[in-house]
Amino acid sequence: MAEKKMTITVNNYNHYIRFSAHCQGFAICIYTSGDIDIHMKEFCHGEYTERIFEYSPDKEVQAKFLDYLEDTLATIILEVALEVVAPYHYFMDLLYGENHFLEAYDFFKNEKLAQEEE
Question: DSSP letter string over 27-58?
């Protein structure tokens, strides 16, 4: 696993949390609109962006997402960004198929658990 560098930047009131290493990058983009994207790139695959939250003025929807982020999603994001669940290249392989971010995560998490049980 390559050494990772983390940076946090604010640009025009948008917030970016980036993890970078040689030939790969992972960013959580929090926009002033309230939308949140995951942006990934890797030298063999190019760029991948997925919206993980689309702003809703409904306070209940916002609260439900914040609970999910705190209880589950933050850990998932870090496990992918830091290559805990799978090497970045393999994770990107699944994203360039028919899978979305959470589906790819579930696949590798289940594979890892199955290997640990053997």
Answer: EEEE-TTS-EEEEEEETTTEEEEEEEE---S-
d(CA 40, CA 96): 11
| Tokens, residue 33 | 């609109």
Domain encompassing residue 95: 5-117
- How many structural domains comprise the chain? 1
Q: 104 with 93: CB under 8 angstroms?
A: no
> Six-digit token pair at 80?
């992918």
* 47-77 tens-digit pLDDT: 899 999 999 999 999 999 999 999 999 999 9
Amino acid at 22: H
The model's pTM is 0.82
**In a 10 Å sphere around its CB, with 0-12 CB exposed, 13-18 middle and 19+ buried, how is residue 57 labelled?**
exposed
User: Average pLDDT, whole number, for the chain?
Assistant: 88
